[in-house]
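Hi V.,

Quick status before I head out on leave. The structure for the redesign project is tokenized and pasted below; the design run finished overnight.
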């Protein structure tokens, strides 16, 4: 199960409830918006998503519609404030399994969860060993970081920011990230940004400084330096290759 809400206090509170263990539900992580949720879906098998309505970049309605069209086996539960009720009703036509008002009534929430478990065939997993649990925990921490980076690469992001999200020190999380992915946090962040730059460079109408800003670099010269270091080409040379090869 994945929890999607841009309020980390709500996400963490929901994630830490004992009722999930009682139902043998593995809450694999949290996402701040639909874009992050999609990244999780690409990298983990998810059976249930509990999502807020109003979120930046991709809201709960858009996420529910996407799942309805592309991954209909995933069960969706909607959370929202009272004033969003008519808005949330749109999600029901995309096969949302429940609508829970905030502040969350946990009894109501688990009534919906129990109904999903009763009606759905969600395979039970074998109990992992201690070593497997540790490995899976680290992998999910890293996946959480990657999903955040992929959804927010255009904004200032530091190791400190992401470490706080997963409640670890910078040094310890940096070690986990590198041991799990075989690359440093900053190298992954740079790679994501420059891969996005390559996509943007295919648009001849975008100026280099605009591309630099769109991938999170305020200094176009620094963008050029990092791009050349990664690809052994300047952005201008890369664009020429794309259009004149």
């Amino acid at each position: 199960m994945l929890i999607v809400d841009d309020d980390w206090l709500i996400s963490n509170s929901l994630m830490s409830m004992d009722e999930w263990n009682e139902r043998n539900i593995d809450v694999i992580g949290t996402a701040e918006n639909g874009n992050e949720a999609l990244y999780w879906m690409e990298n983990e098998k998810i059976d249930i998503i509990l999502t807020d309505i109003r979120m930046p970049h991709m809201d709960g309605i858009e996420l529910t519609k996407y799942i309805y069209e592309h991954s209909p086996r995933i069960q969706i539960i909607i959370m929202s404030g009272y004033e969003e009720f008519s808005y949330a009703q749109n999600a029901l036509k995309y096969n949302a399994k429940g609508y829970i008002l905030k502040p969350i009534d946990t009894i109501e929430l688990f009534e919906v969860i129990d109904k999903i478990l009763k009606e759905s065939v969600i395979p039970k997993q074998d109990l992992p060993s201690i070593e497997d649990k540790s490995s899976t925990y680290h992998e999910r921490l890293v996946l959480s970081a990657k999903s955040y980076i992929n959804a927010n690469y255009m904004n200032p992001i530091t190791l400190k920011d992401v470490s706080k999200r997963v409640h670890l020190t910078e040094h310890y999380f940096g070690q986990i990230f590198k041991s799990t992915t075989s690359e440093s946090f900053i190298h992954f962040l740079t790679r994501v940004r420059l891969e996005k730059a390559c996509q943007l460079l295919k648009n001849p109408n975008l100026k280099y400084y605009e591309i630099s800003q769109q991938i999170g670099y305020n200094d176009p010269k620094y963008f050029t330096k990092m791009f050349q270091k990664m690809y052994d080409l300047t952005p201008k040379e890369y664009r020429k290759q794309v259009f004149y090869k």
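Above is the designed sequence. The radius of gyration is 20 Å.

G. will cover questions while I'm gone.

Best,
W.
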